[in-house]
Specification:
This protein has 516 residues and is of the alpha/beta class. The protein contains 20 helices and 18 strands. Strand 6, helix 9 and strand 7 form a beta-alpha-beta unit. Helix 18 crosses helix 19. It is globular, with a radius of gyration of 25 Å.
């Protein structure tokens, strides 16, 4: 290889990551075919354009300021050193450590985000949008410029100017279809990994397979409460950094309802919540955050509180299906006391400002697959200890807080330490279908952190075969591809397809809605 060829090979290594692989392939082809000077000149121009773009991004990279009052900033240099020296690090920090907003800025400070973006995932759309807005404010930028976000139906990312891209786990997983090596990113931050949703488990398995092929890619896995040993082992004993979180003490008070059985006449969650809010309001000023299982509970409790509390108290619901304008109301603090009624979207994904008090009934809707009935359900169940601790941690952010749990201490101690990963409590037919559609390979060989048992995988394939979603060789069919695009149980999705074929979609939609 002469000097000119050697210089061009080195130049390709300074190009944008999204161009680099393609340019390397083209360069190999040109050298193999002993291309003429004209073709090499045209190719050199393409390389120079990509290198120039990378240099321009390097010159314009924002210089972040760091707020010293956040625990993660006190360990900033240790975190930065770990990122530089390792391909994967695991950051375990309690609620309030500042990891979600400060990690992308630490990566920027290290010079990451130049040849590829810093991808930052969140489990929920509302979190991706609000975190992007917060980081953009801290960097003095408009949303969609230095910092952008991409969620279903909304893409606020500027391919030329954005350095940090917030998105849902599902968006990043979907991007693997057209960008197998995730070449548009030089750093990935997988946030709230403790939620262990299917998307998060798929992503962690996919990234594990990708790491040897992308030695330049840095991966940071963060969580509030995490089984750090399991995660570290999964990523070849990646280093774990633990950051303290809660900055103020939280007093836990147990105020059990007479019974925790919802069918009992003595069970009255609404009255228990109203009494707990009364007790907290006597403590002093500050906003109250109440966790509830779903929209119906939010409506019932909201009505009871409106009748009970003075008009200057603002009662705000918060759940994932609300419009962005309605959700943004909870982030505007005012003079009057606010009572926020939220699903577990506010447990870890969002930080609602000004919260001094929390009421935790101890329940949440948790998706479960019934093997006997072959139905995916969303029963209301007791939350795990880690989830309960997350909830109480929400009131220790601005001052000393109080959390009232509507169950007793013995009940808390008997609960499991962590919530089961979704892959172990869901219909595997749905998992296999998504894996086939995303070309993630054989579920039995995929590197799940908690691999599902083989009999559940076989059961899933049997059901997909009955639905016509896979053939006898277990390959996905055209029907299977259509079913994978519908975010519901495959059996119900198959009913909808049949309804459309038989011109009875309206009627079948009503039945499908009831079954869902």
């Amino acid at each position: 290889m002469n000097n000119a060829e050697q210089n061009l090979t080195q130049l390709i290594q300074s190009s944008m990551l999204s161009d680099r692989y393609r340019l390397q392939r083209q360069w190999q082809q040109l050298r193999k075919n002993k291309a003429d000077a004209e073709k090499i000149s045209a190719f050199t121009q393409r390389v120079l354009r990509s290198v120039e773009r990378a240099q321009q991004r390097l010159n314009q990279i924002p210089k972040p300021d760091f707020s010293a009052d956040l625990p993660v900033i006190e360990r900033r240099h240790e975190v930065a050193k770990a990122i530089e020296e390792n391909q994967v690090i695991i950051l375990c920090g309690e609620t309030g450590s500042g990891k979600t907003t400060q990690l992308p800025k630490i990566c920027l400070d290290l010079g990451r985000g130049v040849t590829g973006m810093i991808g930052h995932t969140q489990p929920r759309r509302i979190a991706a949008r609000t975190v992007a807005t917060r980081i953009a404010e801290e960097l003095g930028s408009e949303i969609g410029q230095t910092v952008g976000y991409k969620v279903r139906f909304h893409d606020q990312v500027n391919a030329e100017n954005s350095y940090i891209k917030l998105m849902t786990d599902g968006i990043l997983l979907a991007e693997t279809q057209n960008d197998r090596f995730l070449n548009q990113y030089d750093t990935l931050i997988i946030d709230e990994a403790h939620e262990r949703s299917l998307n998060i488990d798929f992503l962690l398995g996919y990234i594990k397979q990708l790491l040897p092929k992308r030695p330049d890619l840095k991966v940071i896995i963060t969580s509030a409460t995490i089984d750090t040993e399991r995660f570290s082992k999964h990523f070849e004993h990646a280093p774990v950094i633990e950051v303290s979180g809660r900055t103020y003490p939280v007093e836990i008070r147990y105020r059990p309802l007479l019974t925790t059985d919802e069918d009992s006449p003595d069970y009255d969650m609404v009255s228990g919540i109203v009494a707990a809010v009364d007790e907290l309001c006597r403590e002093g000023p500050g906003d109250v955050l109440i966790f509830l299982a779903g929209e119906r509970d939010i409506r019932d409790v909201s009505e009871a509180l409106r009748k009970h509390h003075p008009p200057q108290t603002e009662i705000l619901p918060l759940f994932a299906r609300q419009s962005a304008a309605e959700q943004n109301r909870v982030f505007k603090t005012g003079g009057q006391r606010r009572i926020i009624l939220s699903t577990n979207v506010a447990e870890t994904s969002l930080t609602v400002p000004g919260i001094r008090y929390v009421v935790d009934p101890g329940n949440a809707r948790i998706s479960r697959y019934s093997v006997r009935n072959k139905v995916q359900r969303l029963p209301i169940e007791k939350i795990s200890q880690s989830s309960a601790n997350q909830r109480s941690g929400r009131c220790g952010r601005v001052a000393a807080g109080v959390c009232i749990r509507l169950y007793d201490e013995e009940d808390f101690n008997n609960r499991p330490a962590f919530t089961d990963p979704e892959v172990l409590r869901t219909n595997l037919a749905s998992v296999i279908l998504q894996m086939s559609a995303l070309k993630l390979g054989n579920p039995a060989k995929f590197p799940f952190i908690n691999p599902p048992p083989q009999k559940m995988i076989n059961d899933g394939y049997r059901l997909l075969d009955e639905l016509g979603a896979v053939d006898k060789q277990r390959r996905i069919t055209d029907i299977g591809r259509q079913l994978s695009k519908l975010p519901i149980d495959p059996k119900i999705a198959r009913m909808l397809l049949a309804g459309a074929e038989q011109n009875s979609l309206t009627e079948v939609l009503i039945i499908a809605s009831a079954l869902s």
